[in-house]
Amino acid sequence: MLQYIIQVVLFQLGFLLMYELLLKKETFFNINRLYLLVTPLVSLLLPLLKIESLSTLVPADSISEISQVLLPEVYIGGEPENIRQLPAVNVVQEQGLQINWWLVTYVAGVILSLILLLKKYQNLNHLFRFRRISEDKELRIIEVPNSKIACTFYKTVFLGDKLSEAEKQQILSHELVHVKQKHSLDLVFFEALKIIFWFNPLVYIYQSRIATLHEFIADANVVKTTTRRSYYEQLLNTAFSTQNISFINQFFSHSLIKKRIIMLQKSRSKTIAKFKYLFVLPLLFMMLTYVSCSEDKEGIDDNQSISEQLAEIKMAIDDGKKLSDTEKQQLFEILDAMSQNENRPTPPPLPPFEKSAESGDNSNAVPFAVIEEVPVFEGCEDLSSNEERKECMSRQITRFVNMNFNTNLGEELNLKGVNRVITQFRIDETGEVVDVKARATHPALQEEAIRVISGLPQMQPGKQDGKDISVMYSLPIVFQVGSSE
Fold first, then answer.
1. What is the pLDDT of residues 276-301, one digit of tens each?
2. Per-residue pLDDT tens digits for 65-94
3. What is the SS3 assignment for 476?
4. Predicted TM-score (pTM) of this structure
């Protein structure tokens, strides 16, 4: 989420810089208005678009990264029999109420923004109480007593009663442009963005720029029907009276008068200047390339062991799946983490597997990948394919372990964070779970894992050439005590 927010802010900054440097001084006001309305939305969508073909345009960070090759394991003393790596089971123990302070801060900002918007609405609503001079479907004019106010909200124009008739006529022609082009909706749109993205200062800059542009558009339309000199005098000589409401269009604004007069004095931009808008295309291309080539840091779980991450990738490749460029990058990250030799407590490796006397001879065992019929967990009998039965077994074992694992051990043993247990067990020719072994950083976790796995229900044994065979499984258990953060 943080990466998404950073990208949105960067893209909005890029669009705003282009507007400030190339477009702001042009007299293509309606095109600029569309630009300021569309680019904030485009900035919200761009981080969600990842084009694989663009990701190949940027080379890898180093040759060493792309040259790493994973070789298969080398077994000394013979390969293990029928070992099936099951996905890790996550067992979580929550420690009391976990408060997400980032979320609390965001919600507090949204509430504060709503309160400020409500206050502005109350100020605006107060103006609606005064006498209406005229009203029809397209326009409503309200006279504000003891004031020289001149502003617009949607289809309503507010005029102070201290304005002269000549001033009212000239101002009204200006405000009618705001009404006809629905400029108030633009400002309300940015008010909504300010609530959702209250922490982003660029949204406030966007609203300021489009409010200025609204005045330029209205001024340009008014001077078509009146002399520029008289209009300048109107802007300079009339006493200012304004309301501090950010979603209304105000005729008199101290900060805009000079800009409006300068823009009125400018000659119309030449048609060839419209080619400046084509610079948006390379800007969009760079943004899309950046998104497509950026690493998805949230795609890797820091609490998952490196061996588990590699095992999952290996299983996916064995199943015929191809790694995307993003997944290849994640694999390189795992290999890099391995090279850093992180000092984390991990359970010691399991000893070489030795069959118990009860398990019988299994000399005819075959590799798990070519077993005709895999062992079937209780409740998975109706599934026909091996893949469906594998997935069903994984779900059922995960459910069984989570239901039966004693999560109070976290508090009893004063454990913190992630605690891993590696287990092995055999489903013999009768479907019984035998030869259960476990390794963990704490003996009590090891004993608990053996107890839980030994309690798995009897299953249908695996079959090869019509004969029952035994299959050995490896199951990592990840015991999370408290929050993962």
1. 999 999 999 998 888 887 755 444 44
2. 433 343 444 433 344 444 566 666 776 665
3. strand
4. 0.56
The pLDDT of residue 323 is above 80? no
Euclidean distance between CA atoms 483 and 92, whole angstroms: 9
What is d(CA 245, CA 242) in angstroms, rounded to the nearest whole number? 9
- Residue 398, both tokens: 């995960």
Measured over the CA atoms of residue 355, residue 357, residue 363 and residue 368, the dihedral's sign is negative
Residue partners of 142: CB distance under 8 A and separation at least 6:
127, 128, 130, 131, 132, 133, 156, 157, 158, 159
267: tokens are 């000659």
Dist. CA 7–CA 290, nearest whole Å: 9
Give residue-wise pLDDT tens across range 12-58. Answer: 999 999 999 999 989 899 999 999 999 999 999 998 887 777 766 65
Contact 161, 144 (CB under 8 A): yes
Strand partners, 373: 463
* Residue 16 tokens, joined: 């705003």
Helices assigned H by DSSP within 93-227: 101-127, 165-180, 183-196, 201-222
What is the 3 state secondary structure string of 286-328? HHHHHHHHCCCHHHCCCCCCHHHHHHHHHHHHHCCCCCCHHHH
Structure tokens at 386: 């091996």
Residue with tokens 């800059």: 205
Q: Tell me the Ramachandran region of residue 416: left when phi exceeds 0, alpha when psi lies from -120 to 50, beta otherwise.
A: beta
Between CA 291 and CA 6 the distance in angstroms is 11
